[in-house]
Amino acid sequence: MQSYKLFKSHVTLLTFFSTAVMSLILSTANCAVYAANEQNNVIYWAGCGITKKAFMAELASAYEAKSNIKIVLEGGGATRGIRDTVNLRIDLGGTCRMTLPEMDHSELHASLHPVAWDALAIIIHQNNPVSDFSTDQIKAIYTGKIKNWRELGGPNAPIHLYVRKGAISGVGYAIRQYLFQDGAVDFDTDYVVKSSGPLEKAIEKDPYAIGITGVSSARKRDVKIASFDGKVPSYENVRNGTYGLYRPLYLVTGPSPTKKVQDFINFATSSEGEQIIRDNGTVPYSDGLALMRKMLIYGFGVK
């Protein structure tokens, strides 16, 4: 028995050291890749798909023409944008939510740089006759209390609620916090997709679909953007704060961004970068003074 306990303790110790060595190897490899990236004319960006579709492609193209620095863009969602940046897997990230260090301690080391304002948009198929939803109706749809379009003045057909996988995705987390003030609430649906892109594409095709995404990317889809509590998420309604579901869009760095990355952030928040964001129908962060005031007074949500 004593021999078995000694053997078990040796195995545990060996496992601990193996895990530690592997973590060190992976960390060293990531740092080596990061250091190599800093020597070339490429910035690797990944993260929030809504930010990517809204204006990042145009910002990246303009910056490449100006600086000869290429911005390689990938999606993957807000969580990837934060965690891959602080873990040195990419140079720069994008997120549409705040950091959640209670979910993952690595997020504590992220620095968020606000660049724009987005709104959560309720989208449905273009042929759907329904055009306005109240807060209570949306909450009832997400919790399964309203399941047929007839209850909303639409056709006698089941509601196909499309949601993003994962409770801490940018949109999923925002819906839970803004509408329910509960980050753990479950949504009652079988229509779960991987990211915002597939959600938007599904709603383009499904006549009985509904979902919530960022208005900055929804504008570039063949969908109907409904009003919410009597307000449409127009550029002006987002800018002046009269549309209730708003949120910032951030660029993400580690605590000490490299000069190459900082130069791009400076460009994105410059007058030239802000005009590119405006030209794509999105509100630059510095234009949303009303939202900044509301944020300081109320936080985020339906106000």
Please give a structural write-up.
This protein is 44% helix and 20% strand. The chain has helices at residues 2-39, 49-67, 78-86, 135-142, 170-180, 196-205, 215-218, 235-240, 259-268, 271-279, 289-298; strands at residues 42-47, 70-76, 92-95, 111-124, 132-133, 160-164, 191-193, 209-214, 224-225, 227-228, 246-253, 283-284. The strands form 2 sheets. Strands 1, 2, 3, 4, 6, 7, 8, 9, 11 and 12 form a 10-stranded mixed β-sheet that branches. Strands 5-10 form a two-stranded parallel ribbon. Strand 6 (160-164), helix 5 and strand 7 (191-193) form a beta-alpha-beta unit. It is globular and about 60 Å long.
List keywords for this structure.
303 residues, D-Maltodextrin-Binding Protein, domain 2, 2 domains, two-stranded parallel ribbon, 44% helix
As for the number of domains, it is: 2
Mean pLDDT: 86
Number of helices: 11
- Element order: H for helix, E for strand: HEHEHEEEHEHEHEHEEHEHHEH
Uncertain runs = 1-36
CATH superfamily of the largest domain: Periplasmic binding protein-like II
Structural class: alpha/beta
CATH topology of the largest domain: D-Maltodextrin-Binding Protein, domain 2
The fraction of residues assigned to DSSP E strands is 15-25%
Tell me roughly what share of residues is in helical segments: 40-55%
Q: Outline, from the CA principal axes?
A: globular
Tell how many strands the DSSP assignment holds: 12
Q: Which CATH architecture of the largest domain is right?
A: 3-Layer(aba) Sandwich
What is the CATH domain class of the largest domain?
Alpha Beta
Alpha-carbon Rg, integer: 22 Å
